[in-house]
Amino acid sequence: MKFNSSPDASPGFIARLGPLKNVQFDSAPFPILPEQDKPGAKIVQRRAFCNGLKGFTFVEILVVIIILALAGSLVFINVGKSISKKNTKAFAQQMIFHCKKARRMALDEGVPVAFNISSSQRCCWTTDRAKSIEFPENMLIEGEGIAQLNEDIYTIRFYPDGSSDGGELTLSMLKLPVYTFRVDRLTGFLRIKEEG
């Protein structure tokens, strides 16, 4: 008796054969294991991988993909917010530095020094416009009590006696106030308030 395990044979093939002494195998791709050495023993062809275990259904895989996509989008949103907040804080620190620099230069050199803001070019600077700092994207700067040089440039002057023109600047991101800067008219000191 001859048993041929061809690739097109069904994977769950079970054959009942006589005594195993007369069985010959032609290059079986899967191991064939006898259950017993008796006449009429079953020969079961088993796969090399997990037999009898089911895989995941399409719906289960789809649910996992949806959950991963939602988790990824939440991470992306939170990372984007933290980067935006970091850029806003860095810009606020640079603005503070430039205002303090203008006050210090006015006291040291004995001449008025201005901190300028250009609304059309979205930048601010003290003495050298080439060293200006640009506003972050979606940043809005609103001023109250700030002198206007022309229709585009607003300025806060610091004087040699320590005084200034004074005024208030509010930095907003997406219409929400983030920082408020108040420049004291008498002393020229800068007070910063971080909003909610």
Report on this structure.
Helix content is 27%, strand content 31%. By secondary structure, the chain is α+β, with helices and mostly antiparallel strands. The chain starts with a strand and ends with a strand. The model is unreliable at 9-15 and 44-48 (pLDDT under 50).
Task: Present the secondary structure layout.
Blueprint: E1 2-4, E2 14-16, E3 24-26, E4 32-34, E5 42-45, H1 58-109, E6 113-118, E7 123-125, E8 133-134, E9 139-144, E10 147-148, E11 153-158, E12 167-173, E13 176-183, E14 190-194
Parallel strand pairs: 1-3
Antiparallel strand pairs: 2-5, 4-5, 6-7, 6-11, 7-8, 9-12, 10-11, 12-13, 13-14
The CA-CA distance between the termini, in Å, is 87 Å
What topology, given as strand order, has the largest sheet?
8-7-6-11-10
> How many individual helices?
1
SSE string: EEEEEHEEEEEEEEE
**Count of beta strands:** 14
Q: Based on the coordinates given, report the CATH architecture of the domain at 90-194.
A: 3-Layer(bab) Sandwich
Report the portion of residues in β strands. Answer: 25-35%
CATH class of the domain at 90-194: Alpha Beta
Main sheet summary: 5 strands, antiparallel
CA-based shape = rod-shaped
Query: Unreliable segments (pLDDT under 50, ≥5 consecutive)?
Result: 9-15, 44-48
CATH H-level name of the domain at 90-194... which superfamily?
Answer: minor pseudopilin epsh domain
Regarding quaternary structure, how should these chains be classified?
A: single chain
Radius of gyration computed on alpha carbons: 39 Å
- The CATH topology label of the domain at 90-194 is minor pseudopilin epsh fold
Structural class: alpha+beta
